[in-house]
Design brief:
Layout (H helix, E strand, L loop, with lengths): L16 H6 L2 H32 L3 H8 L3 H17 L1 H24 L4 H17 L1 H6 L10 H27 L3 H19 L11 H7 L20 H30 L4 H25 L7 H21 L3 H24 L10 H25 L2 H6 L3 H12 L2 H12 L1
Helix pairs in contact: 2-3, 2-8, 2-9, 3-6, 4-5, 4-6, 4-15, 5-6, 5-9, 8-9, 8-12, 8-14, 11-12, 11-13, 11-14, 11-15, 11-17, 12-14, 13-14
Length: about 425
Amino acid sequence: MTSEATAAPDRPARDRPVAELVRNTAYWRWVTATMLHRLPPIMGPIALTLASTHYLGSPAAGGLLAGVATLPCILAAPLFSRLLERLGRERWTPRTLAVGGSARLAVAAGFVTHAPVWALFVLSLVGNMATFGVGGAIRTLLRTTVPRRLIGSALSLDAVLVELVVVGAPFVVVLCALLGPAYALAAMGAAMLANALLLWPRPKPVRESEPEEAAAGTGEDDGIAPDVPDSAGLWRNPAFLFWALVTMAFGHFLGTAEVGALPRVALDGGGAGEAAVLTGVLGAVSALAGLCYAWYATRIGVGLTVRAVALLLTMTAATLVIATVPGWWGLVTGFALLGSCAAPLNSVMTEAPGYVIPHSRMPEGFSVLVAAQSIGYSLAGGLLAVVSVRHMLLLGPATAVVALAGAVLLRPARVSAALAAASR
């Protein structure tokens, strides 16, 4: 599967990529935008349940809005991203966020005024579609924010900050709910509106290009697959299909660990406290691994596909340890090993597709990957509903096995042949 498109490119590496990113104000604007973009989906289930219980007397409506109003938006996000690309990504991404933020503010007002559930459902659909629909577009903006040779480090550092969002979002809900449950919903809308302001188009100053960026303009290989034809598409693109499988496997691994943490510790007589510690170990080790990967990403001498295969194999071993090794320290070891691969794999699988997707299909492609990860995560919960906890954990690597098979079946010859055929 390793090809020029997904191999580690010969970038003019510098010794301190993280330090270079820290000094890049445009990168931190993008990071802030991604963090604000991720807040509403994480805050949503808790905030909607609190509001539904407080204003309607039952959590049922909150569960409906958090679940039924979210899944269609995840599945429709790739089509929405494609429409956004045709309309103009840079112009319409902030406008879409503004509409979505206004819809979320209207949901908060709807709960306070006891609006009918169907109205809350429609407003939630608008807010969710804006959230999930622009995800691919925001990721694509990174290519115009940092030098291309720093994309891997930039994504890895971003993955570390995602952990802060995941951990901090529930606390934001709790703090806002102290004023009233509607304030937590209003905070979700405010986050989207602030995101729209951050991404609103601004005049670009004329400056001298960096050597590697100037090389990109002259056709020199800078690590981005050159001239991937639009006709290569997504679903006939073997390289993209491989990374979609990797992304689904990643979601399945995380879902297996996070959904299965409490029932797994219960098998050994533990409870919610032990499960919370294991989830904390997963997040802390993932953040540390992400920082290390961000620092060394430009110095690793193997291709992105090889990295993904190695990380998937390690996560498979970690999940099997969680499923089979008895005792507390066995669980801590398994969750720590899984966390050591989480942020690096997240960075790899977010960077690599940018080298094999046609430029005109970038937002759509990244939205497909977001949907694939969500499906993988949901698969873990679905398995827990039909099989025992131990079997659910043993099946955690199932999608990874499919992805690893894809690394063999979707080999470089097939990728090259597909791109060559599409360019004719």
